[in-house]
Amino acid sequence: MTKIAYLQCPTGISGDMCLGALVSLGVPQEYLIEKLNNLGIAQEYQLKTELVQRNGQQATKVHVDLVDNHHHHEHSHHHGRHLPEIEKMILKASLPSRAEAWSLAVFRQLAVAEGAVHGIAPEKVHFHEVGAVDAIVDIVGTCLGLDWLGIESDRQGLPLLYCSPFPTGGGTVRAAHGQMAVPVPAVLKLWEMRNCPVYSNGIERELVTPTGAAIATTLAKDFGAPPAMTIKQVGLGAGSINLPIPNILRLWLGESPIQSVTNTADTNSLETISVLETQIDDLNPQAIGYVFEALFAAGAVDVFTQPIGMKKSRPGILLTVICHPENLLNCEAVIFRETTTLGIRRTTQQRAILQREIQPVLTEYGEVHVKVAWQGESPKKLVTNVQPEYEDCAELARKHNIPWREIQRLALQSWYLKHNKDD
Question: Which Pfam families does the record associate with it (predicted)?
Answer without folding.
Answer: Ni_insertion
